[in-house]
Each structure stands twice: as structure tokens, then as C-alpha cells.
Design brief:
This protein has 15 helices and 14 strands. It has helices at about 1-20, 75-100, 125-140, 155-165, 175-185, 220-235, 250-265, 280-295, 310-320, 330-335, 340-345, 350-365, 390-395, 395-410, 425-435; strands at about 35-40, 50-55, 110-115, 140-145, 170-175, 190-195, 215-220, 240-245, 270-275, 300-305, 320-325, 345-350, 375, 385. A six-stranded parallel beta sheet has the order 4-3-5-6-7-13, sandwiched between helices. It has a six-stranded mixed beta sheet with strand order 9-8-10-11-12-14, sandwiched between helices.
Length: about 425
């Protein structure tokens, strides 16, 4: 559009001058100046515009648009040139503002996030990515996200690449990354690293290798306690389900809190737990959810990242209530799948985004306690149930009031929520078996 507009403007003056030439009042044999403005080949990310300004002291040639002018026509020419430059600047400004994939702030720290999974889960990894967006938008950091996928053989090389790139802070998370950070950190003693949803073994770090690593763990058992209260309150069958990703300590921590909350509300509640075995198999998660429905469960808590999509789709197919996890999944589905969104009556928020944002904020302020571990729960506003319009519509007011009361008791430590951390296998098995159908 810009080139066409400029061509038309130049053509107007060219034709006018040519007309004057025919009448004997034009340039005749006097020297002319040819000005050609070319705009060539911007790539698909609109980042590589190239401008060519060519000035020749020759006459008009085919395919070019020119302005022949005398001294008295200089003002007219300058007006055309300024219009062209203004339009060019406008287009460039629009492209810079709307360029997809530009995740960099203008100033500040260089911060990189390693996703050892896939974005688009509307859950754990998307929450971490949102944290980086907050850092970029509010703190002015230059950010980079590397999405590695679930092939764990690629995780260590990706982590080393980020350290080699000398980012001020490298962020990664999940319990699987703890071992890799332990292995990689000695090779990069000056690299600042933030790990989330896991912790380094600081007690065993006699050489001070972790002095530049900050760990964040979450009290997901506290938020899951409230999810258990909600599920037991909304269940008509007295049987509720739980579909976890991998059978590890973090996911078990969700489960034991969920069971305790449900049981505190209803001593006769039954809980059916299942584990997918990974965080990516949506088909298996869906199959496990259908199996729980067969056993009488009418509310299922999904704690399986990408795989959890299978549980949510099963809920939609059978018109059953569900509880999401990590992000506010009901609101995330509201535009794309409003039917499903209305069935996700709440989500147990694990505010990875908020915790990452706060940690980097403290790092910028110089107050972050590097070489230490933080536990983030209800009191730190990093876990809890999503209170959104769906929750307000679907969950009765008396149930919401009940949950608010339980929330305050957990916050005030009147209720101590059991944790899977430090729980041996036999104790965990006995705890889960007490509520099996």
C-alpha cells in the first residue's frame, strides 16, 4: 500500500511536468534529478526492512517514478518526500509493535526460561511462561523462552546452551531438573539460576556450589485441601476422583491434601486416585477419567499438565464437574470452549507465574536470598482456589462461604495440612487406602 501510494504521488508530478514540457515550459534539456524510493523484501517477522535511496543525474527510465523539478518547484518536491517518509515511519512503527515472537524488553536483565515440556497446557508450563511475560512487560527485562519438550535427553544440552549465552538469570523448574542443575551448576559458578517446584540440596552443598541458585517449592497440599473440600461439597455420589501425571512426591502432595480436605468435610467420602505415568498422554488421562466415572466418581481433580486435557475433555463428554490445576483453566477455556469452561468449577492455582515474577523483582532490587530455599503456600498467595465468575455461578454461596472459612483456618494454622514430603511409601499407601471405594 505504501509503495503504491508513493508511486501515485510521484506519477502526478511526473505527468504534470511532462505536460509542461509539451507546452515548451518544462525542463527541456536541463539536467534532471531522479529520486527513487525502494522498499524491498521484509521477511515474515517484519524485522528486516531494507531501504534503498538512489539519486541519479540522468533522465527517466522505464519502471521508475521520478520528480523533475526546477528550483521554484522545490517546496512541492519536499512535501512529497516528507509524506513518503511519514508513511514509511508509520508502517515501521506498526510492524515493531505487532511483531509476533518479539519477547524482549527494552532494558534490564537478560532472563531466560527453560520449559522442559510443552507450552499450551493451560496449566503448569503456561503459568511459568506467563511469569516471564510479566517480567518482560513490568520489569523491562530482555527475555527468552526455550521450549524443549518431554524428551529428557534434550534438557541438559538446552540448559548448558542458556548458561553459555550468559543470561543474567536462567529459570527452570520441576523436580526432574534438580539433578541436572546439580550436575551443570559447577561448570557455571557465576551463573544465577532460579529453580521452581523443586529445591537444591543445600545441606549437602559443602563446596558452596549452589550459592547462586534460588529454589522455590510450593505447598500444593494446602491449595489441594481446599479442592478436596470443594469436590466433596459438590459431589452427589460421595465418590470423587483424582488424575495425576507422574507418581512422584509433588503429585502425591496434591493428592494427600485433596484427600484430607474431602475427608474433613465428609468422613464417608471415597476417593479414586489414578496416575497417567507422564504429563503428556491425554488419551490415557481420558481413559482413566472414564474408568473413575464407572466407579461412581462425579467430580475429578485433574493434576497432569498437558495430559490433563484428556480428563477435562472426558468431563465435557459426560457433563461432569472438574477441578483444574496450576492456572485458572476455566477462564482460559471460556472463549475457545465455553461448554467445557462451565464444567471447570474452579482450579487449584499454583502461582508459578507470580512466584517467578516476585523472585526476579527481588533479584533486581538486590534482596533475593540466593543460595536458599523458599516454601510458598496460601499465606504467600501462591496457592489457592480460583475465584472467578464460573466459580461464582456454579458453586452455591453457602459452599463458597464454607471454603472461605477453611481457607482462613489453613492460613491461620488452625488446620495443619498433611504433606507427602517426608512420608514413606507405607504411610502414603495407608493414607490413600483409607478412602478407596
Amino acid at each position: 500500500m505504501l509503495l503504491v501510494s508513493l508511486e501515485k504521488l510521484f506519477d502526478v508530478f511526473y505527468r504534470a511536468d511532462r505536460s509542461r514540457n509539451k507546452k515548451g515550459s518544462g525542463l527541456g534539456q536541463r539536467q534532471s534529478i531522479l529520486i527513487f524510493i525502494g522498499i524491498r523484501g521484509y521477511n515474515r517477522t517484519m524485522r528486516d526492512w531494507e531501504y534503498t535511496w538512489r539519486i541519479w543525474n540522468n533522465n527517466i527510465s522505464k519502471g521508475m517514478f521520478c520528480i523533475n523539478f526546477l528550483e521554484e518547484e522545490m517546496k512541492k518536491f519536499m512535501m512529497v518526500l516528507l509524506i513518503g517518509l511519514s508513511l514509511t515511519a508509520l508502517v515501521l512503527s506498526s510492524c515493531n509493535k505487532g511483531g509476533k515472537g518479539d519477547a524482549s524488553g527494552s532494558t534490564g536483565l537478560k532472563v531466560a526460561l527453560l520449559i522442559n515440556g510443552n507450552l499450551g497446557d493451560k496449566s503448569f508450563h503456561d503459568s511459568a511462561n506467563n511469569g516471564l511475560n510479566l517480567i518482560r512487560d513490568n520489569l523491562g527485562c530482555r527475555t527468552k523462552v526455550v521450549e524443549v519438550g518431554y524428551d529428557d535427553s534434550k534438557w541438559e544440552p538446552a540448559l548448558r546452551d542458556l548458561c553459555d549465552e550468559k543470561h543474567d538469570i536462567v529459570i527452570c523448574g520441576t523436580w526432574q531438573m534438580q539433578e541436572l542443575v546439580t550436575k551443570v551448576a559447577p561448570d557455571y559458578p557465576n551463573q544465577k539460576i532460579i529453580v521452581y517446584d523443586t529445591s537444591m540440596d543445600y545441606a549437602a552443598d559443602s563446596k558452596g556450589l549452589f550459592k547462586n541458585i534460588y529454589s522455590m517449592e510450593y505447598k500444593q497440599n494446602e491449595g489441594s485441601y481446599l479442592a478436596g473440600v470443594l469436590a466433596a461439597s459438590m459431589s452427589k455420589s460421595g465418590i470423587i476422583g483424582f488424575v495425576g501425571g507422574m507418581d512422584n512426591t509433588v503429585i502425591r502432595d496434591f493428592l494427600v491434601g485433596y484427600i484430607q480436605g474431602a475427608k474433613d468435610l465428609n468422613q464417608n467420602i471415597k476417593v479414586v486416585p489414578s496416575f497417567v505415568g507422564n504429563f503428556s498422554d491425554t488419551a490415557k488421562a481420558k481413559e482413566l477419567t472414564f474408568a473413575q466415572y464407572q466407579m461412581g466418581a462425579d467430580v475429578v481433580f485433574s493434576v497432569a499438565a498437558n495430559a490433563g486435557e484428556g480428563t477435562l475433555q472426558a468431563a465435557k463428554e459426560r457433563n461432569r464437574l472438574a477441578i483444574g490445576v496450576d492456572s485458572d483453566q476455566g477462564m482460559l477455556y471460556l472463549d475457545s470452549d465455553p461448554v467445557l469452561a462451565e464444567l471447570i468449577m474452579s482450579s487449584m492455582l499454583k502461582r508459578v507465574d507470580q512466584s517467578i515474577y516476585l523472585a526476579v523483582s527481588e533479584a533486581i532490587a538486590g534482596t533475593l536470598a540466593w543460595g536458599t530455599r523458599a516454601e510458598l503456600g496460601i499465606n504467600e498467595d501462591c496457592v489457592g482456589l480460583a475465584d472467578n465468575p464460573i466459580y461464582q455461578r456454579v458453586v452455591p454461596a453457602d459452599v463458597r462461604a464454607l471454603i472461605a472459612n477453611y481457607n482462613n483456618q489453613v492460613k491461620g494454622r488452625q488446620i495443619q495440612v498433611v504433606t507427602a514430603f517426608g512420608m514413606d511409601q507405607s504411610s502414603f499407601t495407608a493414607f490413600v487406602n483409607q478412602v478407596r471405594p
